[in-house]
Amino acid sequence: MATYGLSTKNGVEVAVDEFNKNGGINGKPIQLISEDTRGDQTEAANAASKLIEQDKVSAIVGGVISSETMTAGPITEDAKIVMISSSSTAVGVPEIGDYVFRNCLSDEVQAVQLAEYAVEELGLKKFAVMFTNNDYGLSLKEAFEKKAKKLAEVTAIETYNDGEKDFRAQLTKIKGTSPDALYIAGYYTEAAKIAQQAKDQGLDVNILGADGFYSPVLLELGGDAVEGSVFTAGFFTDDPSEKAQNFVKAYTEKFNAEPDMFAAQAYDAAMILLTALKNANGAGGEAHQQEMLKIKDFPGITGSTSFTPIGDAVKDIIILKVENGKFTKLR
To answer: In whole angstroms, what is the distance from residue 74 CA to residue 168 CA?
Structure first.
């Protein structure tokens, strides 16, 4: 099982434990049945069918990756079983059907909210963009570029590949356009190296990014060069709120590891699903689906969540900053 799959399963387990401790539904505990889809679409379809036909489940948390949700979704839709994904960020997931929900934000929403924050709160006016050449980098780049062009100016756009180590050619071109910020649509390893090489070349810019930045490795590799970086995230491990810290404590005690964003989003997905099921008096199907749509400002550890009429998440993204070599929360 991939790490994010395991994190998702663990997050759901913590939610079920807590829910059952608080009395379950009408005094009856919730039973959790897990299936490993191995990141495979066929396995995901088989798992959904098994859970519905053999195990007679009331609801499903999953899939972890968008392609699995796309295959399992139509099966749960036909059976009128509510399914919520905590990490399928692809376009088109909520459109699968009335019984398919998600409580994570799409790549587009992250990029748009950061562009707005950068202009309105940080007062930045000229942006350069560097993006990794894959679906993730491309969707972030397109959304950020579009929003930044509306609100301010985009001076340069350069691409790179994951695993690349020398970014001097792209940074030289960017430096020539005098931006005041550089949005890096990619992951922490390359982002740290880009920030260092920008600093070495005397390119004095605000470094901006997305949830691919959120790893201690960014701080280890980037050092001084990533100080002041601002990026979007789905969860903040050091969130001082009592709810978030209780989750971190319960998770760490149970699994002897710190929870990541996947675990936190899965915990919230399960809690939303179970709250709606409880409000439907344990009845699945249409009654459960209607209660899901009534969820408004659910106070989760990854932020307050509501749903659009098609089951997409409405929530504010978390914005983090590197300050004194640590991650701190801006909003």
So the answer is: 47
Only one residue has tokens 């605000």, namely 206
Give the closest residue to 247 by CA, choosing from 10, 60, 30, 23: 10
pLDDT computed for residue 3 by the predictor: 78
The pLDDT of residue 107: 87
- Pull the structure tokens for residue 252: 């760490």
Q: What are φ and ψ of residue 199, in 5° steps? A: -65, -45
Tokens representing residue 207 in the block: 């470094």
The CA distances from residue 13 to 187, 191, 323, in Å, are 28, 33, 33
Rounded to 10°, the helix 66-78/41-53 angle is 30
DSSP code of residue 94: G
Span 308-319, pLDDT tens digits? 999 999 998 899
Residue keyed to tokens 């990014």: 209
Residue 229 backbone dihedrals phi, psi, to 5 degrees: -60, 145
Burial of 127 from C-beta contacts in 10 A (0-12 / 13-18 / 19+): buried
User: Please, how many CA atoms are within 13 Å of residue 274, restricted to the half-sphere of its CB?
Assistant: 26
pLDDT over threshold 90, residue 1: no
Question: pLDDT tens for residues 271-292?
Answer: 999 999 999 999 999 999 999 9
The pLDDT tens digits of the residues spanning 119-165 come to 999 999 999 999 999 878 998 999 999 999 999 999 999 999 989 99
What pTM does this model have?
0.82
Domain region containing 258:
3-105+241-314
Q: Are 82 and 273 in contact (CB under 8 A)?
A: yes
Residue that terminates a domain, selected from 201, 233, 265: 233
Classified as helix, coil or strand, 208 is strand
Q: Do 167 and 213 lie in a common domain?
A: yes
Count of the separate structural domains present in the chain: 2
